[in-house]
Amino acid sequence: MAESREVFISGPDHDQHVHGKSVLCASLVGIAIGGPLLGMMGLSFLVSVTLLIVSSPLLLLSSPILFFAGLVLVGAVASFSVAALMAMTGLSTLGWVVHQVRGGGRDMGFVEGLKEWAGYLQHDTSYNNRNRGWKEQGGGI
Is 16:9 a contact under the CB 8 Å cutoff? Predict the structure, then answer.
């Protein structure tokens, strides 16, 4: 005598009754799809480990060559980085020299330059008029 079983699923919106046959079919479909995927994953892992074990002696024999090739590669990257940094520094210095030769104004420190730059940003006249007395008394930028 076959029994009809129901599974009770409660959700945020409403409650559902699902028959046992639906749950069994969904589980079988999940196993049918997931089983081969897990099998292929295991096979791929097994082949990777086998290739690593087979190629280990060759890697061990050629490791001195690979180590020094890696050192050359790291040295080349570091050299290009230093060259780029020196190029940026040279261009910055050249720009500063051109600015000084053209008489670009007084030589001000970093904070004074920021204060002058901030003065250009205050275009709102209502803000400037409102704070005029406060600035004349020594406050503000």
Answer: yes
pTM exceeds 0.70: no
Write out pLDDT tens, residues 82-118.
999 999 999 999 988 888 787 765 556 666 666 666 6
Length reported for the chain: 141
